[in-house]
């Protein structure tokens, strides 16, 4: 059985969610447009993921890649790059399972959540490589920040998504 990828119409909604998520995340962290453009990350959907980037355990995965630049003046400096891998099949399953969800609001939550991680790791607020206990606390913190970022939106459909993640903000463990 193959995994279901977003169709063209759904991809347009995802792109819209990306634009909003970037804007609200940058505003929350007070990141200028020029600084935001220097953030090294990309977002992929199922049709562009490798087998190792696909999971059935989450709506998205975040990978960190590092490389040493070959261009002077600082060839010794390691550059980190983050890859947000959206799991179309899991997102679409949730939309079928939960009648109150919309693709735009769910993707906005997921993307904002992952971009908060990218900012925190890029600015060294948190380390990408950490223990499982630290990772669980980080997830709880990021869910809380995502809530703070998105609660100001007055979209009725967004309220349902935010309420769905209440337990993730209130406990120090992650339940998948």
Description:
This protein is mainly alpha-helical. It has one domain (8-67, 76-169). It contains seven helices and three strands, in the order H-H-E-E-E-H-H-H-H-H. It has a three-stranded mixed sheet with strand order 1-3-2, covered by helices on one side. Helix 1 (8-29) packs across helix 4 (103-122) and helix 4 packs across helix 5. The chain is globular and about 45 Å long. The model is unreliable at 170-176 (pLDDT under 50).
Number of domains: 1
Protein structure class: mainly alpha
Name the assembly state: single chain
Proportion of strand residues:
5-15%
Shape: globular
Count up the helices: 7
Short structural description:
The chain is mainly α and 176 residues long. It has helices at residues 8-29, 33-37, 88-97, 103-122, 132-150, 156-164, 166-170; strands at 41-44, 60-67, 79-86.
Write the layout of secondary structure elements.
Layout: H1 8-29, H2 33-37, E1 41-44, E2 60-67, E3 79-86, H3 88-97, H4 103-122, H5 132-150, H6 156-164, H7 166-170
Notable features of this structure?
disordered C terminus; 7 helices; about 180 residues; three-stranded mixed β-sheet
């Amino acid at each position: 059985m193959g995994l279901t990828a977003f169709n063209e119409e759904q991809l347009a909604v995802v792109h819209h969610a990306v634009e909003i998520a970037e804007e609200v995340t940058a505003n929350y962290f007070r990141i200028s447009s020029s600084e935001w453009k220097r953030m090294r990350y990309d977002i992929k959907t199922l049709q562009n993921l490798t087998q190792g980037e696909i999971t059935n355990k989450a709506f998205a995965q975040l990978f960190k890649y590092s490389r040493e630049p070959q261009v002077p003046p600082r060839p010794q400096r390691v550059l980190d790059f983050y890859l947000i891998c959206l799991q179309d099949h899991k997102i679409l399953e949730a939309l079928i399972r939960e009648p109150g969800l919309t693709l735009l609001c769910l993707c906005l939550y997921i993307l904002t959540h992952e971009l908060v991680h990218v900012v925190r790791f890029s600015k060294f607020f948190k380390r990408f490589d950490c223990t499982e206990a630290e990772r669980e606390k980080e997830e709880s913190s990021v869910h809380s920040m995502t809530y703070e970022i998105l609660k100001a939106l007055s979209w009725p459909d967004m309220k349902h998504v935010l309420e769905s993640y209440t337990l993730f903000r209130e406990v120090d463990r992650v339940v998948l």
